[in-house]
Amino acid sequence: METAVQPDALLHSFITKTLRVTTNDTRMFVGELKCTDRDANLILARTHEYRIPKFKLEDMGRKVDLTSRYLGLVVVMGVDISRIEVEEIGRASDGDDGMEV
Amino acid sequence: MANNSGGFNDAFARLHVSEKSIEGNQITTTTISSPSSTSYRDVTQLFRQACQGLDVGQLVKDPNFTLFEAVGALEIMDPKMDSGLLKPGEDDTPSELYQPVLPEEIIGIMDQLLSSEMSWHDGAALSQTVFTCLYIDNLLSLNPSSLEEAKFNLPPSETHQPGSPTYQLLHVVLRAYCVGLIKCCERVNLQILAEHTYEEEDFVTQTYNVSLLDFITVAEINKLLVSAIEYVDSTAAPWPNNIKMALKARLAFRKLFLTELSRDVKEMVDKRSNWDGCITLLSTIGITRNLGTAVPSVFSIAVQRKLASTVPPRPIVQIPFEEAFTIVSRLCKDAKEILRVLTYSGATNLMTFFLRFTARKPQPSTYVRSLLQTLFFSNHVALGRMQISHILLEDVKELCLPADDLFDPRNELSEMPSDTRFQIHQRMKWFVERAGNSYITLYRTICQNRSRLRRNLCHLIVDWDALQIECEEIDGELQQLIKEEPVLHNDNISYAFSLSSWVYHYKLRQMEWIIFLGFELEVYLPHEFAGMYWYLQYFLRTRLQHLERIRHFVHPGVAVDSPLAATRSKECIASAQDIANAQATVNFTLLEAAALQELCSAMIFLYTALARLGLVKTPPQPYSTDVMRYELRMKPFLTIGCPDVVPFEDFKALVDNPDIETIEMLEMASENTKEGRKNFDLLSKMSATSSHALLCEEGYRLNLREYLRSCIGAGVAIVMLLKAIKTNTVADAEVEIDQGSYHPWFPIPRISSKKRPPLPAVPPTGR
Fold it and tell me: How many CB atoms sit inside 10 A of residue B639's CB?
């Protein structure tokens, strides 16, 4: 019983948080976690896709904007995920996040 | 290479995440914080371990999120769903955009673009058509906000030195064409969004957050096109004359087409339209079509990877040039034709035009049907210069011609609530507002696609039924106010009930259209035909009786001692001509309804006979019964007060007519087709004015010819059947329903012998 509750609670703490998920093809998806399961399949809402732009020699050392587009609700399969990151709101800007006490 | 992925990941963490291109309505409550205050913590290990602690099938989810919503989610890495997925071995870095050298290639690209544009007009999405052109993509990808910015961003090339003809070809000629085309798309989108059409069904207005040069004016773009034409014309352009002509025609067409697409209703009323110019240039484009060389490499589905789209990727749609050419030519001709409604010539004429124009096969394009709605009514103005109340009241007068006092302009001047004139005005004002809405909706509905028209009519008749009841009450009050003289009709003393009579007539017509459209859209199965024609015949018979009544009450008299008589203004008094016109309209409508009724009666007998002879069979209905099907067909009419839906048992007896011998039945059908034919012949001899077909005589006559063809076809089928019965060869007969060669409302059975080749369909009676 005890062991089943813990991962559950941990995962629940990620629900509705903004995640940045990197897939095996090096794209990133930033969206709000709605649902997950044993295989770490994720459903993300209001998702944006980010793709690394073509690196050109002349761009080296410069700040490059990622090309992004809006996709909405997406499902990312656990097997396709290489990295999961959770957004942390900096302490300086805690204005709109009343959930964290 | 080995540390590449790790390096990338680290790079991501430091990369500045740009959000600039996502604005607008797709996002409502995004709270992605500004990059400076955002940091991400890697939780891959933690997350995966926690997940493994879950049971199979156990979900951790937001309580407000339902799995039903998840059905609409795009599945990343699924090639059918994920437009951003690269094919195995595909490189994300697109190969450099091919820069054409030859003017023939430019002609080819222009024609390919026209095909793409017309595929869009024909219902595909921009992401499948215009946006797949890499030159359009190149032009729009930097989100230009001024004409200067709307240019190609191409790497320098040896073959394209600035100022050289090859350079000008791309950066002057093709650029102007592309800019013009994008703006044309913007105008079309604006028009379609302004009126009622069905998204995805008729047309896809989605632009994936790409601005279609919204901020650049048509005048600027026209100038750009003119300077491109001037360049092609100049001696600096070293191409043969036929090439120059081809390029010029395409640029000039784009300019004229854009101008036409940008006209407002006022300009159209002032007869400033010049669709003929577009049509002339199109013929030049058609002639010079073979000069172009296709450049397929400048179209790519990969563009969809960049579009903000919440739907799965869709394949490229590019119709052959010939097809696109037909679509654009028809669009120009249709757009020109609908301008006829602006020369208003009476409400009945207007309605005939709407009915005939939208019934055309293939149906006029979504753009044209949308524009027709705008012409009819926009900004509270009908036909660009009239009040809708005027058209509505004329429609009533043309058919029913109510008593003069209802339309006396002096009514409006009265401000004393106890005054009769004031009270009449109040009621007429109510009628104009209430019926006006239903009337506008009817016109707009007729502009919808055929399936939607049928479906929406099922809703409209409910409204018209309510309107009829409300108008009966108002009619009752009005007849007392004007002191209408009652008239003896069918052994009863009665009043005109002009307003509700008019409403009832329209309601009956709409009920007929619902069933007729059922035939046109092939909703019914052959074994239902007899029953559905029975209903048509029933509605038509009701309408005929109603029209007889209307004829009796055209321009009802009022009491000589009416208090209004002394102050009646002269202008409202109907002339002898007005009365004759209304009677002529009623007579014409009677003849038309009678012709249809005869043909419907023939069809009932014909299809009942076919069922009896076993030539039209009821297919197995494992999950249905005749009663259930009947209920389904009658559903739109169940709530209608009058005419009633007939109980199934009675209906069956009325359709099957078990007391009549089959031969006798077919002979009766033969009589009906002859009568019908006689009536349609009479109709064909009438002038366009008395047929109320001034705006669409050609389409109206074509329709009549199709009715006649159906009459003749039914006659032939009846003769064949009679012969088969008399020679005892029914068992050898075969029946095929012909939907195509006849009037779409009257499909005809083609009867042939299994032993002999089938007889050809009745040849067209001239087209």
Answer: 11
Q: What ipTM was reported for this prediction?
A: 0.83
Which positions in chain B touch A7 (Cβ < 8 Å)? 49-54
Taking the C-alpha atoms of residue B491 and residue B130, their distance in angstroms, rounded to an integer, is 69
Q: Is the peptide bond before B526 cis (omega within 30 degrees of 0)?
A: no
**For A6, which of B53, B75, B93 is closest by C-beta distance?**
B53
Separation CA B639–CA B465 (nearest Å): 9
Give start and end residues of each alpha helix (H) in B79-133. 103-121
A2-88: what CATH class?
mainly beta
CA distance B646 to B627: 12
Query: Residue B27 corresponds to which tokens in the numbers above?
Result: 């996002």
Name B104's Cβ contacts closer than 8 Å, sequence gap at least 6: B243, B291, B292, B293
Q: Which residues of B372-406 are buried (b: 16+ CB within 10 A; e: fewer)?
A: bbbbbbeeeebbbeeebbebbbbbbbbbbbbbbbb
Instruction: State how far the alpha carbon of B341 is from the alpha carbons of A28, B264, B368, B750, B759, in Å.
Output: 55, 15, 13, 39, 43
pLDDT of residue A54: 59
DSSP B130: G
- Digit-coded pLDDT (tens) for B44-94: 999 999 999 999 889 999 999 988 888 889 999 998 899 888 877 776 666
Residue from A22, A34, A51, A56 to probe the interface with B (highest B Cβ count within 10 Å) = A34
User: How is chain A split into domains, by residue range?
Assistant: 2-88
- Residue recorded with tokens 């604006």: B190
In angstroms, the CA B435 to CA B395 distance is 11
pLDDT at A89: 75
Provide the 3-class DSSP secondary structure of residue B731: helix
Per DSSP, helices labelled H in chain A are 2-14
Quote the CA–CA distance of B703 and B509 in Å, as a whole number. Answer: 17
